[in-house]
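Troubleshooting entry. Yesterday's outputs looked truncated, so today I'm pasting the complete records for two proteins to confirm everything comes through intact. If either block looks cut off, that's the bug. Protein one:
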Amino acid sequence: MKEIFEWDRLLFNELPVVFLLEVIFRSSVMFIILLLTMKLAGKRGVKQLSIFETVIIIALGSAAGDPMFYEDVGIVPAIIVFAVIMILYRAVTWLTGKSKKFEEFIEGKTECLINDGKFSVTSFKKETLAQDEFFSELRVNSVEHLGQVKHAFIEPSGEVSIFYYEDEKVGYGLPILPALFNKKNKIIPADGTYSCTFCGHTQEQKAGTAKCKVCQKEEWVEAINTKRVS
C-alpha cells in the first residue's frame, strides 16, 4: 500500500532527475510546433488573441492541467515546463521588439482587403478569410455593396477595420446581400452597370459576355449604389 505523501513520487513520479532534460527538450519542441501550427491556422482561428498569446495559453493550460489529476505526471516536470515556456515567451517578446520582420511573422501585419470599393486581390489571397466570411463581416457593419467602402483592412488580431465613403461619394459596387449576389452569371442579360464577382471591379457592360479587365474572370452581377444606413 502506497503512503499518502511519497515525496519522490509526488514531485518526480519516481523518474530520474536526468528526465528533466527531456522535459526541457519536449517543451521547446512542442512550443515551436504550437507556434507554427497556430501561425498556419491563420488569423481567423484566433480572432481576439494574437497567435503568440494563444500559443502561450494552450501551452500553459496543458502544462497546468495534467499534473492536477494524472498520478503519473510529476509536479516538478510541470514546473520545468512552465519555466521553459516563460523563458521562450521572454525570448520571443525580445525578438519581436528587435526585429520588425520577426514581429510580422509572429503577430502578422495589417493587410488591405478593399481599396476604393474593389478587392485588393493580391492581399486577399494571402489571408485565409473566405469571400463569404468576409461578406458576413461587412454585412454585420451594415454594408450592402462594396461601393460604400473606401478601405477595409484585416488587422493582426483578425478584426476587420472598415472606412466608409461619405453618402455623396458612394458609387456603384458589388452587392454582398445574398439575394442580389446570387444572381451572378456569365451572361449579362442587359446593358447596365455590373460588378465582377471575383474582384469587385465595376463598369458599364453591354449585354452578352465579357472578361473583367482586372482579374480576367467572366462572372458578373448587376451593381447597386444605395447609400449606407447605419
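Protein two, checking that the full record survives here as well:
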Amino acid sequence: MEQKADAVDAILAQWRCERPELDVRAMATIGRLKRCSALMQRQLDVAFAAYDLSNWEFDVLATLRRSGAPYCLAPTALFSTLMITSGTMTHRMQQLEKRGLIERLANPDDARSKLVQLTQSGLALIDRAVEAHVDNEQRILAPLAAEQLAALDQGLIALLALLEPDQPRDC
C-alpha cells in the first residue's frame, strides 16, 4: 500500500536538497513522533477541557488516583513521576488545592513536608475524566489495524527502553 506524503516528508525533501550528504532517517522518525505527539495532544486537550481540566491537572489527579487508596503521595514522588521541578509542583498544588481537588496533609514520616491527597471532589472528577480519556484514546487509535498498533507499541517499547533504561517494568 502506497503511503501519502506527510509534513515530515516535506522537511526531509528540503534537507535532501540543501544537505544531500546527511542521513536524515532518524530525523524522519523523531520528527514524526514529535508531530504525532503534538497532534494527539490537541485531541486529548479537548477531552480534558470537557471536565474543566488542563493536561497537567489531569496528569496530577490521574497520578494520585492510580496510586491507589488513600490516593495520597509525597510531593517528591508526585513530581518525579510527572517529570517536573519541585517549584512547578508547588505552584500546581496550590492551584489544585484552591479548586478543592486535592488537599495537603501533615506527613507523619517527615514533619518538614506535607502529603498530597485527592479530595472526594477530586476523586469523583478524575474517575469521570479518565473514562472519557480512555474512550478518546481508543477513538484516536481506532483507524489503525490491530497489527499496526502492536508493531507501533513494540517499537515504542524498544525506544523507551533505550531512553529510560533504569525504569522498572513491573506493577
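Both blocks look complete. Sanity check on protein two: The radius of gyration is 20 Å.
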